[in-house]
């Protein structure tokens, strides 16, 4: 690709960089950015997260996020997802 140098001027995700090196349309269905999509938070999960936050907010010396993750009924949520959702709320 003679114009690949132009592509290098802009930030690329790892999936886009892989696609540039292997050829465009090289990613299969379910790979790259679509694979890492997380399920959205339902209103019930947001309410449970809010209640758990207020419950563990006042605990001295404890890790609030670890306590929330232990009590969160929705399995598969990561620490980063919980923190990001709390900040968003």
Automatic annotation (TrEMBL):
<feature type="compositionally biased region" description="Polar residues">
    <location>
        <begin position="23"/>
        <end position="36"/>
    </location>
</feature>
<dbReference type="Pfam" id="PF26019">
    <property type="entry name" value="HTH_TIMELESS"/>
</dbReference>
<dbReference type="GO" id="GO:0003677">
    <property type="term" value="F:DNA binding"/>
</dbReference>
<dbReference type="GO" id="GO:0043111">
    <property type="term" value="P:replication fork arrest"/>
</dbReference>
<dbReference type="GO" id="GO:0006281">
    <property type="term" value="P:DNA repair"/>
</dbReference>
<feature type="region of interest" description="Disordered">
    <location>
        <begin position="23"/>
        <end position="43"/>
    </location>
</feature>
<dbReference type="GO" id="GO:0031298">
    <property type="term" value="C:replication fork protection complex"/>
</dbReference>
<protein>
    <submittedName>
        <fullName>TIM protein</fullName>
    </submittedName>
</protein>
<dbReference type="GO" id="GO:0000076">
    <property type="term" value="P:DNA replication checkpoint signaling"/>
</dbReference>
<dbReference type="InterPro" id="IPR044998">
    <property type="entry name" value="Timeless"/>
</dbReference>
């Amino acid at each position: 690709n003679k114009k690949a140098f132009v592509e290098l001027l802009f930030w690329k995700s790892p999936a886009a960089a892989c696609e540039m090196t292997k050829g465009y349309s090289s990613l299969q269905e379910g790979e790259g950015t679509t694979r890492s999509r997380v399920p959205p938070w339902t209103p019930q999960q947001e309410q449970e997260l809010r209640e758990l936050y207020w419950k563990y907010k006042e605990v001295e010396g404890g890790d609030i996020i670890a306590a929330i993750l232990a009590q969160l009924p929705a399995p598969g949520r990561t620490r980063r997802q919980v923190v990001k959702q709390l900040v968003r709320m």
